[in-house]
Amino acid sequence: MATLEVLKFPDPRLREISAEVKNFDAKTKAKLKKLSEDMFETMYAENGIGLAAPQVAELIRMLVIDARPRDTKGRYSIEEMSDLEKSVTQPLVIINPVILNYDGKTTFDEGCLSVPTFFETVERHKNIELQYHDVLGEKKILKTDGLLAIVIQHEMDHLDGTLFIDHLSLIKSNKIKNQIKKHGYPEKKSHEDGDEEEEREL
Ligand code: CO
What we know:
With 202 residues, this protein is of the alpha+beta class. It is 26% helix and 23% strand. It has one domain (12-200): Peptide Deformylase. It contains 4 helices and 5 strands. The chain binds cobalt (II) ion (CO). Cobalt (II) ion is lined by residues 112-114, 154, 158, 202. Cobalt (II) ion binds at residues 112-114, 154, 158, 202.
């Protein structure tokens, strides 16, 4: 396995529309498996909870996700998950995702490995029903809510060249984009007091 470089805004490749995976022949499946392993390694190394293939410059409609809550020691604490979230096995590889149904609204303080150190509240669908292919090309359907539903919607945006900062008010969005373009990214905050919960990027 290998860790991959995560593209950062304003890299223009993050604005591309990624291509559907059209066939799952043996050669393609081997490539998808290797890419998914490298994406997981990259995501975990960066302490992220989701990563889309275009964030590592592979312009295909593929996501990897592990949004299981973890405590400060990195142990999974699944009792914080909803029953619907628990019903979905994670980590997840999702290819060619399509939202079939949705309802309700929810908000979350989102961040992104491609826009590091910035966190802003974004509104998403609360419940989603998703159709996708797994890494073997099997067609699947899942229903979920909670953080998992939020991460899926955030990562799906990457497949169409959209970033979470595009969902903010125009004033706030332009302020962040101009700040990054002018000054780059600030140093990651170090939590010296040690008891502040680390924010996880998507
Ligand atoms: Co992101």
